[in-house]
Amino acid sequence: MKTNFSDFYYFSEYFDEKLIKKTNDMIYSNNYKFYKGRTGYQKEDDRDSNNRNICYVPQRNEESKWIYELLWDLTLEANEKLYHFDINKVTDQLHYVIYPSDGGHLDWHMDIGQGDVNKRKLALTVQLSDPDDYEGGDFQCWSGALNGFATLPRKKGDVLVMPSFMMHRVTPIKSGERRALVFWTGSDRPFR
Fold first, then answer.
1. Global confidence as pTM
2. What is the mean pLDDT of residues 96-118?
3. Helix/strand/coil (H/E/C) assignment for every residue in the chain
């Protein structure tokens, strides 16, 4: 069984215009509320490490069932082909994220930590914005070496799956805005 915990699994341009429209319609037709994003280590008024707006999409909801099933299937495929983690549940509500034009960003972090986020094993991100609609906002992962970070592709509709322990960030937006989905899966058991 081949595994590679330091690699990403891509579905290139998987979300076509129809799926992106369906996603946006689901968010805005249901009047889901947006909140200022925070990370577990961030103070309430700290915009230096994080500037983004998040809409939490309910999991047990007739309007969102289709997207949870779709993202679950993509995650399972990536896990089967590359990671082989013990995964049996969605760990968090789906996040619809907007990185705004006033420097929207997210500093270096992992998607795992103390408490409930410790159950996350795989993180999935969907690129909803056209790369020409914004400047900056690069999704980068750090490999641990000096200047050892990779800037990941940003084609509209790309889906990326990676282990939740990979260090990553979104660089500051210089103009426009970046939209993405973020989805986590894992289990109640430690990594295995």
1. 0.90
2. 89
3. CCCCCCCCEEECCCCCHHHHHHHHHHHHHCCCCEEECCCCCCCCCCCCCEECEEEEECCCCCCCHHHHHHHHHHHHHHHHHHHCCCCCEECCCEEEEEECCCCCEEEEECCCCCHHHHHEEEEEEEECCCHHHEEECCEEEECCCCCCEEECCCCCCCEEEEECCCCEEECCEEEECEEEEEEEEECCCCCC
